[in-house]
Amino acid sequence: MSTGAEADVEADADLVHDELEGVIGDRALARDDHVNAPGFVVNPDDVQDVLVDLRDEAGYDHCSCVTAQQYDDRFETIYHLKKYADPTDEVSIVVPTSLSEPVSQSAEPVYRTADWHEREAYDLVGIEYEGHPDLRRILLPETWQGHPLSADYDQEKPQIVTLSEHANPLEPDHRDPESDTMFLNVGPHHPATHGVLHVKTVLDGETIADLEPDIGYLHRCEEQMCQQGTYRHQIMPYPDRWDYVSSGLLNEWAYARAIEDLADIEVPEYAQVIRTLGAELCRIASHMLALGTFALDVYGEFTATFMYTFRDREIVQDLLEDLTGQRMMFNYFRVGGVAWDLPEPREEFFEQARDFLDELPAKVAEYNDLITTNEIFQTRCIDTGVLEPDVAKDYGCTGPVARGSGVDYDLRRDDPYGYYESLEWDVVTRDGCDNYARVLCRMEEVEESAKIVEQCLDLLEDWPEDDREIQANVPRTLKPDADAETYRAVEAAKGELGIYIRSDGTDKPARFKIRSPCFSNLSALAEMSEGEYIPDLIASLGSLDIVLGEVDR
Amino acid sequence: MNAAIAPLQNGDTVLLPERIGELTGLSEFGIAGELIAAFLGAFIVANLMLAMTGVAGPWAKRKITAAFTDRIAVNHIGPGGILIIVADAVRLLSKENIIPENADRPAYDLAPIVIAGSALLGFAVIPMGSGIHLADPEVGLAFVFAVAGIASIGLVMAGYASGNKYSMLGGLRAVAQNIAYEIPLVVTGMSVVLFAGSLRMSEIVAVQNETTLFTIPGLEWAVPAWFALVNPFAFVLFLIANFAEVGRNPFDMPEAPAELIAGYQTEYSSVYFVLVYLGEFLHIFLGGAIIATIFLGGPAGPGPAELGIVWFLLKIWAVFLLTQWLRSAVPRVRIDQLIEIGWKGLLVLSFANLALTAAIVGLIA
């Protein structure tokens, strides 16, 4: 299946390349093709020019990810561009800068989403972006010394940022007798931040005048940890810890897809069906949790909705536990397949799964009765947290957040992987652009996922017993070609979860970059909430459905 | 003395302090004796209410919410987890009382007392049946609205004096909300007064139970003219305004845990927290007591008059159950929407109700 797709890509490739070369012209210093996309090296001073042309003339409206890394002789920033209309149409813009003076033009004026991505690149790698409106550290404390992913950083030197030695992030005095506004720290400890998030808000009465999310409280150096693990076994457990609320298999798939692409591994179809089944169960569990916690934000603590969603999610969790042996940290995917076959006795597993699917419609109807048709709920959610489609694209929003704004973008359909292509299901979009649309979008996606699960169960039940191959033949030590680079994304519960890997010929990645959907979605919060009331901010934050483990990585 | 136990006679009830005075012989000591008897009566009523809150807060509320939300709740200590009351009391009272550096004292210390005290004060004029009725002033209903309104001051004090922005916002919301909802509450209450022709609580109760609305044919049940049945419109209006007044879903903005942590009570801990928490429950019960008295016939119910207090408490708990139900099932509105509902909706409706009632009462009279 994947060989056919690759052949198609190569056939189209020349056409696309000619067009791209026409747009970029002689600003392209060289070619630096990646496994997933053609790459063009451009001068640090031409970044904005080239990106504007690519966006406006060639239609690359989705700056999916910005990767920064250091080579022996240079720094490099890679802009991974895509089209919302066709995410398989990708291009990488590679911007090298010198070691002594790592300054490059900022892409922020072209893509708003580059704001946070470039801050992260500055924070972790140390590249400076000229023309960036606010180039500060984003994940690490302001007082951190050095850039941890740069070559000259001393990994051994401990840096303990204590409150007494360094600035307390909540300490600055914002009192201003001249001003009519009030500064309010929402978080880092607050019931509605869904983790450790600090939102600096400026209030005019109860209206949000200004807002800035402050992230990084849960930064665990996931990228670096992945860089220190071997491809074959040691990286796979980490993705479970990004979006840790029951999306584990979806995350694992992101890594699996990237490495299988890079090392050219073909996954047996049977394993792909099991992966699809597991991933969609995860999506159901994740969306149930999103619905429940959103209800917490709008209803109040420990309401019926919250408990009902958790009750129903628990059934999915049981299924996942039967399948993987774990409730949260599944570690079930393997490079080239999955860890083991369905649990024995298989009939029992199928029966449990089918029972869940049979009961689901009644439960969804109950949620609709209890939540979405409630008039108070509607007054609270309709026309609040408005995110226009253009703004959503500009901020690189994906997943239910983008689809709630009418952006018809789902990698399962648009950039197919696994077994999705052969199954019958629909991509849900809503035109409301508000909190209500995002909630409905998730609820309908649960139903679509249930369709996929059902078809997977049918397939698995009828699968011939002597053809149940769960694992491709993968070398014990995996060493992709030196200097092979790829950026691959899957549709995780929250949106596009992408992995960039650069191989240096060893058994560990030279650079491992995670493109987290929550990170990009959260950056749109300010745009959604300014001018609205505090309760709307809380609701918008809930409807973005962020998991801080994935935002901060 | 036995004749005096049925308190449903025309306003000439024997009040609890008088009975205590006569039973204990204290009334022979003149004013001092009466004063002591009054204190004893107040002590009994206050403790009854506090005991009820004690049951409601740590145990009943949890059990009720759990039932609504498909959970089990406390079940480890004692039968049905009932001894959690003791455990919670020990836990809460033995905690360190942390007072924020920027707290504005003594307002910070007074607020919990004002919040809890104002609610307790309201029970003084409520006829609870079985002879439990502390005082029966001419202006009973006005008195109970007035003292319940004092709680707003307590909320502002708590919100302002805590030196916390969340508390401040919660306090401000509480004021905005209480002003918006106290007027419809009182205006709707007035429509009852028009019917009863008196502000005296005992008379309001008596009027409801003396008249028969209609008799169910065949069963020979005389349905009393409880105002909830006479004027269901006013009853619903009053219920809604009451939820806003006690700050429960869908009107729990002053606390709104997801938005304001815990609003005005964010900074309170230990004993102070207990007082604030008690105050909240007392207010819910006082709201229930007012509703029971002016709309549900007070302590009246089938069976002997001695059972009055049982019926009365049952009615209060029914209202409490309703608040918990709403808390589990209904989202909260936004503060601006709440103010809008209050000023543009309830206020207009409550005046319409008053005009309508006046017209009907005028016609009948």
TrEMBL record, chain A:
It catalyses: a quinone + NADH + 5 H(+)(in) = a quinol + NAD(+) + 4 H(+)(out). Keywords: Cell membrane, Membrane, Multifunctional enzyme, NAD, Oxidoreductase, Transport. Residues 303-553 form the NADH-quinone oxidoreductase subunit D domain. Its main location: membrane. It is an enzyme of class 1 (oxidoreductase). It is a peripheral membrane protein. Residues 41-158 form the NADH:ubiquinone oxidoreductase 30kDa subunit domain. Its EC number is 1.6.5.11. Signal peptide: none annotated. GO terms for molecular function: NAD binding; NADH dehydrogenase (ubiquinone) activity; oxidoreductase activity, acting on NAD(P)H; quinone binding. GO terms for cellular component: plasma membrane. It is found in: Cell membrane. In the C-terminal section; belongs to the complex I 49 kDa subunit family. NDH-1 is composed of 13 different subunits. Subunits NuoB, CD, E, F, and G constitute the peripheral sector of the complex. This is NADH-quinone oxidoreductase subunit D. It comes from Natrarchaeobius chitinivorans.
From TrEMBL, chain B:
GO terms for molecular function: NADH dehydrogenase activity. It is found in: Membrane. One of its GO terms (cellular component) is membrane. The keyword Membrane applies. It is a multi-pass membrane protein. The chain crosses the membrane at residues 35-60, 72-94, 106-127, 139-158, 179-201, 221-244, 271-296, 308-326, 346-364. The keyword Kinase does not apply. Pfam families: NADHdh (PF00146). GO terms for biological process: aerobic respiration. Keywords: Membrane, Transmembrane, Transmembrane helix. Its main location: membrane. HAMAP family: NDH1_NuoH. This is NADH-quinone oxidoreductase subunit H.
